[in-house]
Hints:
Strand content: under 5%
Number of strands: 0
CATH architecture of the domain at 3-69: Orthogonal Bundle
CATH superfamily of the domain at 3-69: Winged helix-like DNA-binding domain superfamily/Winged helix DNA-binding domain
CATH class of the domain at 3-69: Mainly Alpha
CATH topology of the domain at 3-69: Arc Repressor Mutant, subunit A
Number of helices: 6
Largest sheet: none
Amino acid sequence: MEDRTYYIILYDYYGDLFTLKQKQYFEEYYFNNLSLSEVSENYRLSRNAIHKQIKNIETKLLEYESKLKLYEKGLKLKQIIEQIDSEELKKQLKELE
């Protein structure tokens, strides 16, 4: 899986753990596909400051996943659900995802 996609998935799990500013920088860079220079212009910060913030967020996302493993557990749960024969039970479990 591409790093960019992986970070976005992890952000879906752990994004609420970041400050409002960190969320804004990450979302501008990853979701809106702005360059570091564009993000830095939008927030009147140096390009280097934005780069450090993004790298810090990426590092924290990886740390959170290594400790909590929510994404990994979600993948395993999906695999288990697919092996269940009962359609009603499958439906109920998918609603919990």
